[in-house]
Write a structure and sequence with these properties.
The protein is mostly beta strands. It is 7% helix and 38% strand. It has three helices and eleven strands; from the N terminus they run H-E-E-E-E-E-H-E-E-H-E-E-E-E. The chain has helices at residues 11-15, 99-102, 120-123, and strands spanning 30-39, 53-58, 61-66, 78-88, 91-95, 103-107, 116-117, 133-134, 138-145, 148-154, 159-163. The strands form three sheets. Strands 1-2-3-5-4 form a five-stranded mixed β-barrel. The radius of gyration is 16 Å and the shape is globular. It starts with 10 loop residues before the first helix and ends in a 12-residue tail after the last strand.
């Protein structure tokens, strides 16, 4: 069965949580978004990507896209993603059911997205989830146990957790 086209939404529209319960209002709804890839697929570089996830960003926000393992999607590629609005560990996402049909390249000419500079405290606000950000500060803690591979950074405004999964490295054999 061929599904009808999903309504095109902005990332901000997908992330709306009008009642503040921490769950996107469109949870379970099939939608499409267009955005530039800000975290590339593992098909581009197996040691430089998250497991089955890319991130896309439009002018309104950034979003996790889950279910991407075979598509070659380098940084800066403009894609249209169709999937089901979901959530993982408190973060909104789109779950693609079939990456070969649910992800299309709108423009393969890379246009890298510049990170937004923000304070460490602002980087942790729910309204900033999904954005490609740049923070600076003092590393206050490094945790590499219990499945948590994170740096904790503070610029004096509050601590930011920078999750660095154990399989994400610099693209060499040295993770």
């Amino acid at each position: 069965t061929v599904l009808p086209p999903a309504p095109l939404k902005t990332v901000a529209e997908v992330r709306i949580d009008a009642n503040g319960d921490g769950i996107p209002d469109l949870l379970g709804t099939r939608v499409a978004v267009e955005g530039r890839v800000t975290a590339q697929s593992k098909a581009v570089g197996p040691n430089t990507a998250f497991f089955d996830v890319i991130y896309v960003q439009d002018a309104t926000g950034g979003l996790t896209v889950f279910g991407v393992s075979n598509s070659t999607l380098p940084l800066g590629t403009l894609v249209r993603v169709t999937g089901i609005v979901g959530q993982f560990e408190g973060d909104s996402q789109i779950h693609v059911l079939n990456e070969s049909s649910d992800i299309s390249i709108v423009d393969s000419t890379p246009a890298l997205v510049s990170p937004r500079s923000m304070s460490t405290s602002d980087s942790m606000l729910e309204l900033n989830e999904g954005w490609l950000v740049k923070v600076q500060g003092v590393v206050t803690n490094i945790v590499t146990t219990g499945g948590d591979n994170s740096l904790y950074i503070d610029d004096g405004t509050g601590v930011a957790k920078v999750y660095v999964n154990g399989y994400v490295g610099d693209g060499t054999d040295n993770l």
